[in-house]
Design a protein that fits this description.
The protein is mostly helical. It is about 55% helix and about 0% strand. It is globular.
Length: about 80
């Protein structure tokens, strides 16, 4: 899967998991996920990490790792691509 397709899939997943009422195209791939316009909280972060593990088999464990991986959609896609390579 190429990185652009992965980013699009992640945007859809984030909207579904965090129950946001926006379109995937409204999420800037490089915008901060935590404390950004999506206003994700710690429960959202946990949901995303669990779903990434379910869908892609990539574990994001610990607060620091989650904060780094969820810096943006682009960062999350890069982490998944690197870990599943």
């Amino acid at each position: 899967m190429d990185i652009e397709t992965l980013k699009q899939d992640l945007k859809v997943m984030i909207i579904e998991e965090c129950d946001k009422d926006i379109e995937p195209d409204e999420i800037d791939s490089d915008a901060p996920l935590i404390q950004g316009e999506l206003d994700l909280d710690s429960l959202d972060v946990l949901q995303i990490c669990m779903e990434v593990k379910n869908r892609y088999g990539v574990r994001i464990e610990g607060n620091t790792a989650a904060r780094k991986a969820l810096k943006s959609v682009t960062t999350l896609a890069e982490v998944i691509a690197k870990e599943s390579a």
